[in-house]
Amino acid sequence: MPSPFARIVAGPLSRALASRNARIFFGASLGAWTGLWMHRIGVAWLAWELSHSAAWVGLIAFADLAPAVLASPFAGAIADRVDRVRLTMISQGVVAVEALAVATLTGTGHISIGLLFALEMVSGTAASFSQPARQTLIPALVAREDLPAAVAANSLLFNVARFIGPGLAGPVIAIWGVAPAILCNVLGHSFASLSLRWLRVDAAQRRGHPATGSLLAETLEGFRYVARHPGLGPIIAFSAGTSVLLRGVQEILPPFVERLFGRGAESLAALTACFAVGALFSGLAVASRGRLAGTTRIAVLAVLAQAIATAGFVATSSFFVAMACAALIGAAASAHGISVQVLAQTAASPAMRGRIMSLWALVTRACPAMGAIALGTAGEVFGLRIPTLAAAAGAAAIFAWGLTRMGVIAQQLEGSKEEKP
């Protein structure tokens, strides 16, 4: 008799990974993301070693994520009018080159906190182009009825890498230092970029539409599309607000590890892995549903669970309790993120998909960056516990607003395959 876990994996996810294109795409993504998480752990620890400042660790996280504020909207419009495979290859290649520069400078002793900030800005800008471009390719890899499972597979593999990467990074950093951990990102992103040549994507799916106006006009059209949409607008705004308040904790973990629990790099890796384990199991549960109905409810209720777990994370002085809370945070964040992305991918017009995904990139990259810098700065003045508890309370208030809109959002996003404002 198959276990529940086996039935989940053998169900919708197996269909999502059935095609040759999907196996190539997601296999390469797993390698790139494993390298990315090793890079993130290495850079966060490097920033802490260079500065011993929570504010600087927040600024480095901000440097990686904040370029999405300016770049992502234009990146989405570009992804809707150029070859999406080529755009993904180029942007992932830039990430690999930036990682090589950081590893080389660190290994030779020439890195500084200011130079690290500048290089992470470059990587963050490249990732802002890569994320919407590669996400617009997902519907081209699977049948339409398997799109929710493919989106879930995308998130699940990210969280598998989030478990593997820190687990590898901790011992590597402890034994050999930061540079070798970052070099793994060079290998992962280089392979991911080159492997895209093996994809067989229909020409109609490689481009959204021919250019119909200026890049600025098409970018603004994407904002108007979402703002007028009675389902997409509220759910993306809801996710953005809660992401600013709750995701900052995950972006500046080193100060929490050392100041609240008195631990080092290996415990940082263990804590990051706890986030990933929770996200993995939660994502499998969401993916196993195989249906759109009820997805909005999951997206909204998961925010309350994340706020409660975040409050528990900073309220305790026990590292083991904090690990349990981290797993719950990861589970809730994964359930919310997968659900919102499924709703957005399903509801978006194909010609607008790049721009919709670029706004989602703003939520997943720019909003955590703002949260990280605010939390890091406040942490220097008030300590880490009080600002984090205040942020969790603010997220609970946004949840209450989302609860009042949940029925309308569900009607708009779950009621049909494509909605236009």
Automatic annotation (TrEMBL):
A Pfam family: MFS_3
CDD domains registered for this protein in UniProt: MFS_MefA_like (cd06173)
Keyword Cell membrane: yes
Keywords from the named record: Cell membrane, Membrane, Transmembrane, Transmembrane helix, Transport
UniProt main location, coarse: membrane
InterPro entries associated with the record: MFS_trans_sf, TM_effector
Cell location: Cell membrane
Topological type in the membrane: Multi-pass membrane protein
Transmembrane intervals: 24-48, 54-78, 99-119, 173-199, 231-248, 268-286, 298-315, 321-344, 356-376, 382-403
PANTHER family the record matches: INTEGRAL MEMBRANE EFFLUX PROTEIN-RELATED, STAPHYLOFERRIN A TRANSPORTER
Protein name per the record: MFS transporter
Organism: Muricoccus vinaceus
